[in-house]
Amino acid sequence: MDETAARQVLAQVGLEHRTDHLPSQLSGGEQQRVCIARALVNEPPVIFADEPTGNLDEENEQRVLALLQDLHHQGRTIVMVTHNPELGCFADRIIRLQHGALALLSACKEEQVQVGARAPALAAYDLAGQQVELAHWQGKQIYLNFWSSGCGGCLAEMATLEKLSKTYADNVVVLAVNTDPDGVDIAALLAQQHISYPVIRDQLGITKERYQVVGTPTSFMIDASGKVTAQHEGARNEQQLTALFKQLATGA
């Protein structure tokens, strides 16, 4: 086994600082990530993953899922066995077994946004690592805004969105979807901008794909019933945003 390759794959699962430790010195989650690294080091074309995130915390679960998705995009075949139905959103095909028998075989057709149709489900997590669903804000208008830390237009909108999110809090929620890679720390930026509206991270890019976002900022208006009513690409100034939120607040 090539030592350099081994160290590289250990770094991919977040264990670059534990390369000189014995198995007995590792936690259960760390031992699981070592097993994943060992399975990947020889670059197999087919990877069988049995509950690969079972003993992992939220951060490392996302790390491993992102790694597997990247390998899939490179052309590897990933076969994952899991009891977690939420992981189905990462799959191209789903096979469900019940009492040892085939219960369902389906293609996991990826949702895509369409104005006038129900909003695609989110595949994103809040800053505490908890999965977020649009249903949490059912009954309110949602201003779903995709943004990135290197986007000047995104940053220029933040102060106005913060003000409007408070002014129209009873009727409209600003839900910001950050599209930066997992390694980009956005906490300091959010603190500097005094952001209090909910911010979620699309670490695997699945939500961005579902909403067909090409650049940031891109925003979607979702009504109280969960239907996408409008889409907009590019930044808006304060006057434009204020007029829009007045319209959203009245349900127009």
UniProtKB/TrEMBL annotation:
Any single Gene Ontology cellular-component annotation: plasma membrane
InterPro entries: ABC_transporter-like_ATP-bd, ABC_transpr_LolD-like, P-loop_NTPase, Redoxin, Thioredoxin-like_sf, Thioredoxin_domain
Alphabetized Gene3D superfamilies for the sequence: Glutaredoxin, P-loop containing nucleotide triphosphate hydrolases
Pfam families the record matches: ABC_tran (PF00005), Redoxin (PF08534)
GO molecular function: ATP binding; ATP hydrolysis activity; oxidoreductase activity; transmembrane transporter activity
Domain of life assignment: Eukaryota
CDD domains in alphabetical order: TlpA_like_family
Family: Belongs to the peroxiredoxin family. Prx5 subfamily.
Known role: Thiol-specific peroxidase that catalyzes the reduction of hydrogen peroxide and organic hydroperoxides to water and alcohols, respectively. Plays a role in cell protection against oxidative stress by detoxifying peroxides and as sensor of hydrogen peroxide-mediated signaling events.
Record's protein name: Peroxiredoxin-5, mitochondrial
Source organism (scientific name): Rhodnius prolixus (Triatomid bug)
